[in-house]
Specification:
This protein has 2 domains: 2-112, no CATH class; 119-206 and 283-401, no CATH class. Helix 8 (159-190) packs across helix 13 (291-320) and helix 10 crosses helix 11. It is built from 16 helices and no strands. The two termini are 29 Å apart. The chain is globular. It is mainly alpha-helical.
């Protein structure tokens, strides 16, 4: 409430220090010690810092809570007077552990409204949940051991194995996080609450800028509204904009994990976003064109898709690798690695990744129809049961932890 009553920014700074300080203590204390060790500033400090178990979902909880305080301070949302409502906003379990990152204006009005049971929402929520479960158990968990087998031996991978590792992990994390986000939407809908969609066919993006409008949408919006704009955004000239873009993605990478690999991953995306800004890349360009200009536009879109896909896949290697050395070995093998044949593992990765790429459009359309309740409740229930049965039959023999539970 203090953030709403004063024009001073001190309540925001207090909240930022407390929330980010807690996050930093649990997540980055050991990493900071490791950096000081590596720079020979403090010997053996990293190993001397006590390691604490990372509280589940702490990164998402901190971002949601800090965003709420900033929204209240900016007068974009009124401070909630009822502690029970504010607590439920912070602890609404479907999105608590790994998002989507809900804003106050998206969730609190629904929490405060009178609950009315809706059979169509319950049935569509069950079906949406089943779709997410299928994506997780069949695609993500099926790809996980195959991709892991390549990353376990990064020094001997061939060119085709390196690309399979990158593409396979790209498919794995997509199915894993899209699956979780979809299940969260389905669970919330069963309670009559709609939370934001977090994915929109990201691998069809034709620029990195467009990719971040389609991938982990709620995180992209959070970083844009609370970090990028606070760093100056596009209001203070081109150099300031480029620095703000790079810093935002660098910090976004570090938010994902306490490892040099996440910093490199964020730096890759930040650098490419900066270059796109300099070149004036606009994913919304096009408009009403025809003839030769339309052909050239479509050709440029295809080329944009190709380079975006390659950049994203290279960056995923750093996201997945345990250290920078492992990542560099695989990335170098992607371009200068030796030749090799198609093993059974590579064929499985290729088939599952291709299958996911093909079905993502029908799945997205199905999810849209379910959210808009364009399918009859009996069809939604029957479909959800069929998907759950299919997930049990076709799913991987061993269930894997959600990737974003680590963050």
């Amino acid at each position: 409430m203090f953030a709403e009553r004063t024009a001073s920014t001190w309540p925001v700074w207090v909240a930022a220090v407390l929330l980010l300080g807690t996050l930093g203590f649990f997540k980055y204390a050991g990493f900071l010690g490791q950096i000081l060790d590596d720079l020979n500033i403090c010997e053996n400090l990293g190993s001397g810092i006590a390691k604490f178990a990372l509280p589940l979902g702490i990164s998402f909880i901190v971002f949601q809570a800090l965003g709420y305080v900033i929204d209240v301070h900016r007068r974009e949302f009124s401070a909630e007077r009822k502690f029970s409502v504010a607590l439920l906003f912070k602890a609404f379990f479907p999105q608590l552990i790994a998002g989507p990152i809900c804003r106050a204006h998206e969730l609190i009005p629904q929490i405060k409204s009178s609950f009315q049971f809706s059979l169509p929402k319950l049935c569509s929520g069950m079906a949406i949940f089943a779709v997410g479960l299928f994506l997780k158990l069949v695609f993500a968990d099926g790809l996980a051991p195959l991709v892991d087998s390549i990353f376990l031996s990064p020094f001997t991978v061939t060119r085709i194995e390196a690309w399979a590792a990158a593409g396979g992990f790209g498919a794995q994390i997509y199915a894993d996080f899209w699956g979780y986000s979809t299940m969260a939407v389905g669970l919330a809908r069963m309670f009559g609450i709609d939370i934001p969609v977090n994915f929109k066919l990201p691998y069809f993006a034709t620029s990195i800028r467009e990719f971040w409008r389609r991938w982990h949408i709620t995180l992209s919006q959070w970083l844009r509204d609370y970090l990028y704009k606070s760093l100056g955004g596009s209001r203070h000239g081109q150099l300031r904009t480029i620095l703000a873009l790079f810093a935002t993605m660098l910090l976004g990478g570090l938010w994902h994990g306490a490892n040099y690999t996440f910093i490199v991953w964020g730096a890759i995306h930040g650098a490419v976003l900066a270059v796109e800004h300099l070149l004036g890349v606009n994913p919304n360009a096009g408009g009403q064109i025809s003839g030769t200009r339309l052909f050239l536009y479509r050709l440029s879109r295809f080329m944009g898709w190709g380079y975006t896909f390659i950049v994203v896949m290279i960056a995923w290697v750093f996201f997945r690798a345990t250290d920078v050395s492992q990542a560099l070995n695989i990335v170098s093998a992607m371009f200068i690695g030796g030749d090799g044949g198609l093993s059974a593992t590579l064929k499985q990765i290729a088939m599952m990744s291709l299958a996911l790429f093909i079905v993502q459009v029908p799945v997205e359309r199905l999810l849209g129809a379910l959210r808009e309740e364009r399918l009859a409740p009996d069809f939604a229930v029957g479909g959800s049961l069929a998907l759950i049965l299919a997930a049990v039959v076709l799913g991987a023999p061993e269930a894997m932890q959600f990737i974003y539970f680590e963050f």
